[in-house]
Inverse folding.
């Protein structure tokens, strides 16, 4: 458990690598989630910053944003296209909208249907092509936030 | 909203970031308890593929909408070393003592995500079976038709023509054996074929630095990067016993062997064993001092003609009768009769 804390702490302490111009910075980080069991059967989770992964690896994507300007940013919308080699699993906060058609249309995953043969089936996380968060209240000057989602290497 | 929660987090880069880390653990732990499962993958993303992630954002500023991109994170997909070997015969392959070049069929599938060569090793000397065949060769189904074509399909030589398989590709491999003379009806022999990834094998997770396709590492997958399976030969032997009997009817209604008496010979062929005798034929010369009664051959009570040129199974060549019985499985009998008259 201590290892987990330290790893997550390190993650939080990671410096921003913001490329953004303007007044809002947006950064993207990807971690691989390694689950291990110790001799007592206790499970520990370590997030590692990977350079390499294998199919089946569980990835945690963390997007961070921060308003570094001197005015509020209204109607703040963050969009993350899923890399094609990664199957979406879930977000941590569950407030996202998703697209299963390459960003054409958006909705809650539970409301989306996939055409199959002559009918439809319910969309599953693996169908997701894009994730989007609408932060309607905007971000005030100096404030920041974090959006987290999981995927599995196909 | 995420935004609301994150506002309460200590500032990034602050020395007080540890408590923030602690508070983040809660959602992760909860998700793990729900048992988020890792889906199963056949081969998965091809080794060497770059996974690139970039997020975009838009917001309304004083001078209209602003679009920004995040940095791009790039991760390479390593090569996963996996293989599956499967016996491709529907069941035991029937054979018989002394049979040569008997074929067992296997498939070898690259269940990893990179192109990989595999070393094949046959084993005919397995324990726990009834006999050991003699290995003749291992043959790659070069023309990919799933059938052993002698002289066409390539004979495998380890280290020379090890099959190289793309992700999800399958090759058919034949193990050719001779059957010794000793085994009896119903005996079984196990023949095993194993395949090992040439990059390396080992405990799942074992990593071979820089040896993966596309410049990444090669990592041993759940199969251990080796696999094997067995096929079986089953001896199905059969033998035939021929019994001959005779009955006589003399011209006076008795059973004396006098000139003019008619002798009916009955030949009963009895096949035993679990196999089938193929192309079985019986023939019997007409005894001296007797004359064959034309068109008197019967098989299972049905008349046969004397001509060898027609389609039926019987014939008489002037000195002996013959009947082609064909393929007779063990447990069956065939009864042939013919008649002669004592001169």
């Amino acid at each position: 458990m201590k290892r987990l804390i330290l790893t997550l702490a390190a993650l939080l302490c990671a410096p921003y690598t913001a490329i953004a111009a303007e007044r809002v910075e947006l950064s993207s980080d990807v971690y691989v989630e390694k689950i291990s069991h110790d001799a007592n059967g206790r499970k520990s989770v370590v997030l590692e910053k990977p350079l390499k992964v294998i199919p089946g690896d569980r990835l945690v994507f963390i997007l961070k944003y921060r308003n570094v300007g001197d005015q509020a940013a209204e109607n703040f919308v963050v969009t993350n296209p899923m890399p094609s080699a990664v199957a979406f699993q879930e977000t941590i906060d569950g407030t996202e909208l998703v697209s299963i058609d390459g960003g054409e249309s958006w909705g809650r995953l539970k409301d989306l249907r996939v055409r199959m043969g002559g009918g439809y089936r319910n969309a599953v996380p693996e169908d997701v092509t894009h994730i989007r968060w609408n932060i309607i209240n905007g971000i005030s000057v100096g404030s920041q936030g974090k959006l987290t989602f999981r995927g599995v290497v196909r | 909203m995420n935004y609301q929660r994150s506002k309460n987090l200590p500032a990034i880069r602050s020395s007080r970031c540890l408590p923030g880390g602690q508070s983040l653990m809660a959602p992760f732990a909860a998700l793990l308890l729900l048992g988020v499962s890792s889906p199963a993958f056949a081969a998965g993303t091809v080794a060497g593929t770059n996974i690139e992630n970039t997020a975009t954002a838009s917001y309304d500023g004083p001078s209209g909408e602003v679009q920004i991109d995040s940095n791009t994170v790039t991760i390479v997909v390593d090569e996963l070393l996996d293989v599956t070997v499967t016996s491709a015969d529907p069941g035991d392959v029937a054979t018989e003592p002394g049979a040569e070049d008997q074929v067992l069929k296997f498939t070898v599938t690259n269940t990893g995500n990179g192109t990989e060569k595999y070393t094949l090793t046959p084993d005919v000397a397995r324990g726990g079976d009834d006999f050991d065949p003699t290995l003749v060769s291992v043959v790659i189904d070069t023309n990919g038709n799933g059938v052993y074509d002698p002289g066409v399909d390539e004979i495998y030589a380890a280290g020379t023509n090890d099959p190289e398989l793309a992700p999800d590709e399958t090759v058919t491999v034949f193990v050719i054996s001779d059957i010794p003379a000793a085994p009896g009806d119903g005996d079984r022999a196990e023949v095993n074929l194993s395949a090992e990834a040439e990059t390396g094998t080992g405990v799942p997770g074992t990593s071979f630095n820089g040896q993966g396709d596309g410049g990444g590492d090669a990592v041993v997958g759940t199969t251990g990067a080796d696999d094997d399976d067995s096929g079986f030969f089953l001896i199905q032997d059969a033998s035939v016993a021929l019994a001959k009997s005779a009955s006589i009817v003399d011209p006076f209604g008795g059973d004396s062997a006098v000139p003019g008496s008619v002798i009916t010979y009955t030949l009963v062929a009895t096949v035993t064993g679990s196999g089938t005798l193929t192309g079985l034929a019986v023939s019997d010369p007409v005894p001296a001092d007797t004359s064959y009664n034309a068109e008197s051959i019967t098989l299972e009570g049905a008349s046969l003609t004397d001509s060898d040129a027609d389609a039926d199974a019987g014939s008489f060549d002037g000195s002996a009768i013959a009947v082609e019985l064909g393929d007779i499985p063990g447990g069956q009998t065939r009864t042939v009769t013919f008649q002669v008259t004592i001169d």
